[in-house]
Design brief:
Blueprint (H helix, E strand, L loop, with lengths): L19 E5 L7 H22 L17 H14 L4 E10 L2 E10 L12 E7 L6 H14 L10 H8 L2 E6 L4 H8 L44 H13 L3 E7 L8 H6 L6
Parallel strand pairs: 4-5, 4-6
Antiparallel strand pairs: 1-6, 2-3, 3-5
Helix pairs in contact: 1-3, 2-3
This protein binds zinc ion (ZN).
Zinc ion (ZN) binds next to loops.
Length: 274
């Protein structure tokens, strides 16, 4: 895309360094296990961030496929990981739809040795990524975490024996790409799109405070849908969460100032906000 006008000479990403941020939805307690887990997430995020730094100052469009996988490739890589590590990983694809709109979510379950996967003795963690289509880096983080859990990648300065001893106590479910249909729109050129494939913000489609309009409410960006859990993606997440009953649920997003969208979109893609 060639930029013209007043903003054409402005570097759109003067310090572009995408990094995911994390919202813990259901914290129970700050046990040492959780603190260690948060540290691991941070390390993995920093590693993903480091890869982002190598592409500073690149143009906004098109999506840099050297930096980001396409959705098909990313899910394919995760599928391959699961095939290579049946002792640790399984994957389910859950589909839902209504009123002519359908979506599907891949859900990966990690449990070392596949031992006691359904046992209440394990600590259960749900990690979800890519709820907003344009936040590409979060799904990259999901892939990286799964690679680390599969022991195909390793974290510096983390003792593998201690880590594995810790991981033995966990069952982790990972939803790498919660909003596949919205992501497809982004990959098709709607780089600012955060909503699902029919224009609903999945992060406003929960029943908690559904329809509540904050002072900065944006009816385009924050369309909550026709009712709580009206969207297939939200229905699938509810199903996953209620059946898995996690001790904590971490919903990973990338911030407005660092993703190649949002505030910058207001300048470069004003049509997206209409
Ligand atoms: Zn988000």
């Amino acid at each position: 895309m060639k930029l013209t006008g007043k903003l054409a000479d402005r570097d759109p990403f003067p310090s572009f360094s995408p990094a995911p941020w994390i919202a813990v939805l259901f914290p129970l307690s700050l046990s040492p296990l959780l603190i260690l887990w948060a540290g691991l997430l941070g390390l993995a995020a920093a590693a993903a961030d480091g890869r982002g730094n190598s592409t500073e100052h690149r143009p906004v469009t098109p999506i840099n496929l050297d930096l980001y996988h396409s959705s098909i490739r990313l899910i394919g890589e995760i599928n391959d990981l699961v095939r290579r590590h049946p002792d640790k990983l399984t994957m389910d694809t859950i589909k839902a739809g209504n009123k002519g709109y359908r979506s599907e979510l891949a859900v990966v379950t990690y449990c070392r040795g596949r031992k006691d996967v359904d046992s209440n003795s394990k600590f259960r963690i749900l990690l979800s990524f890519g709820q907003h289509g344009r936040e590409l880096i979060t799904s990259e983080l999901a892939l990286r975490i799964l690679s680390i859990l599969s022991e195909e990648e390793f974290l510096d300065k983390v003792d593998t024996v201690s880590l594995n001893s810790f991981l033995d106590k966990l069952v982790i479910k990972v939803v790498p790409m919660e909003n596949l249909e919205g992501r497809k729109l982004v990959e098709g050129g709607d780089l600012c799109e955060r909503r699902n494939g029919r224009g609903v913000d999945l992060n406003r489609n929960w029943s908690v405070d559904w329809g509540k309009k904050e002072k900065d409410y944006d009816p385009y960006e924050e369309n909550p849908g026709v009712a709580p859990f009206s969207e297939p993606e939200s229905q699938i997440m509810r199903k996953v969460a209620t059946s898995f009953n996690p001790h904590i649920w971490v919903n990973v997003h990338s911030g407005m100032e660092v993703s190649p969208v949002s505030n910058i979109c207001k300048y470069f893609f004003p049509q997206a906000l209409k």
